[in-house]
Amino acid sequence: MAIHLSTPVSGLPGNGDKAAADFASIGIKTVRDLLWYVPFRYDDFSRREMIAKVPFNIPVTIDAIVKSIKLRPGKGRMTIIDAVIEDESGELKVIWFNQPYLVKTLPVGSRHSFAGLVDYRFGKTLSNPIHEPMGRNVNTGRIVPVYSLTGSLTMRKLRESMQRSLSVVDTLPDWLPQEIVLSEKLPTLSHALLNVHFPNSHEELNRAIDRLKFDELFLHQMLFDEVRRDRKIKNATPIAIDEQALKTFVDSLPFQLTKAQKLAAWEIVQDLSKPVPMNRLLEGDVGSGKTVVAAIAAHTVSKSPLLTKEGARGRSLVAYLAPTEILAAQQERSFFKSLKDSRVALLTRSRQMLNGEVCKKTDVIDALSNGEVDCLIGTHAILQDGIDLSRLALVVVDEQHRFGVEQRHALLERDPNHAPHLLSMTATPIPRSLALTIYGDLELSILDELPKGRKPIGTAIVPEQHREDMWKHVRSEISSGRQVFVVCPLIDPSDALGSRSVMDVEKMLKKILTGVRIGVLHGKLKSDEKQKRNEDFRDGKIDVLVSTTVVEVGVDVPNATVMVIMSAERFGLAQLHQLRGRVGRSDMQSYCYLLPDDASPISSQRLQAVVDSQNGFELAEKDLQLRGAGNVFGNAQSGFPDFKFATTADVPLMKLSRDWAMKLLEDASFFEAHPLVRERIEEALEQIHLE
Ligand code: ADP
Ligand code: MG
Question: Which residues, chain by chain, have CB under 5 Å from ion ligand 2?
């Protein structure tokens, strides 16, 4: 059957309804979507050897004939397959665990390629190799892609589907201007995608990755340019500085601001007083106290009349955009408490509030239209049509890297003449020079100190034999009234034998921590259940919260003192650091325990880095060193979740993309000559996924 880019994945051979549903659950509906589902790492089985020359403990592929194959029972319910394979040079023992069907798949006399490692655990043996008919070259004999899996999807099936899909990759239009492709000697888009999935060599892989990184960075520059040009010609409402009111507000806080917070707040207030739109990034490690700085800005603005050329239009509106519903609800509470004489509203898909009371969505929408809200907190649900943001004077974007340029654009560019001030906040440590390269003209405030009295978080890698003691410690913390986070990875790549899910861990903890109140929180719960679970944890009605990384951003429960991270090697360093930042938010001693499933030398090294450093900047650097460019993709790990491929290390490519963007945009007819670029930008701008 002929396939094309828009063929549904269910139309690929071997994919039934179940597979289609599993693909859909990770956002893949068509062949085109599948092509963009990139591996998270590779296994290099490109080295082929004769049996006599097979190296020890190095990945190889062996083409051989099955000489004998037998099934025998192992310990418990385990089954073992013992086989011998041979080629002209000799024989080799092969062993497989729990794959009894192989006796049928690999009959004596059949020829196959076997890929894996030879070790000496059971005498010189190839253990658990991958196999396929000789000459197939999809799962063996090459650099093999390893994808994240979910549901019933198997690696084999995914690779097969991918191979099929790649047969039409050439029909994907290449949007990047030819002049760039030619002068930078980049591979074409289809060539790059082909090599990202099934690389011919490491060199080709790196070239492919560079091309895809360049695409992201170039598109980003194009989008930024749209925003940049717009903002240059627009004016903003100047907010008069009322020092007395500012002081009163700061004095009303339950703590003293750090020096860094004071400085940042002052820089922001000064920007706000100007008639040009503020564009400031507030950067601070987890727990450095960014929220209160934003609250000061919000307080200043929400009391100020909105002056325009046409005269006053009532009080100004502040919008605070949070990346998750949980975070939005948390910030609503914190703003409602601290901004005493402002009218605060919450708007997310599943929950709406006005002045501290739960209400209907239409109530919030009406209140906004009637000018009865001073501070609107929400997720990107606030970007829906029909929501009156005409009084918007300040936009605060929390954890800004969670939002695409597109969403920022949608909030900022509503009015052709007027733009709100923008305060973005991030815990991603970006050096100043890099920030300028990525974000263009922007001011930076950095919170480089933690509030007084914070103790370093005791961090340890906990091997299997020490887990019992660790859970004892967890129990003792609970007995003294503290709370505990337990985080599990979201998707279980199938190659992880012991990867833990939230449900597994909950079950296990019910046994280990009898009598303790355990709650679960993950993406599949309904929104209001999530909300409830989160509130219960915040209010101390749950002792242990077992969750996916939904707690990663921003959640603030100062009474929690222990963070346990299951399958810790599955997370990026930046993410581990963020997760750890959920504890140590008071002056109580806190702990972070990293529980790896598999301790490969590289993952041990990465986890050790988290033990050794509590500094986000240092860890980001370390992450890059250990990872080496191009080995791992994935939003959560790149440090720039706008991007799938580009990372903080790609400064030269960022500069290159910026230079090209600036050069090409000098030509007023650029877009006329490059309709595909225009199309790509429009597409990106439209991708405002409503929750
Ligand atoms: P983040 O920068 O990670 O967003 P938050 O703004 O959530 O950090 O602040 C972390 C915690 O520290 C909160 O509980 C907040 O109330 C508290 N906090 C913020 N500033 C100070 C301060 N100057 N002194 C003491 N506690 C503070
Ligand atoms: Mg925060």
Answer: 554
